[in-house]
Amino acid sequence: MTEKGYMKDIYKQLEECMKKCDNLSQEVRSVKKQTSKKYIEEIREIKKVHNEEVCVLKDEIKDLKEKNDKLNNEVDRLKKIKI
Could you tell me the pTM of the whole model? Predict the structure, then answer.
């Protein structure tokens, strides 16, 4: 094989490698984009569930505060009677 033919083969191989690299780069971008969307959706769902749990807990706290106030009032009433 002549030097010119050898250089032509090397150049052809280099072009093929560059095409493969470009294709892989596009694949990586695509996978990153899909993964990002997936994680964003998962985070949104987790946030939604946590917000619902927080609302439930706030309601429970409110109920417990009301019960505590009633019990404190009852304690005060009973203290007055005992005197």
Answer: 0.54
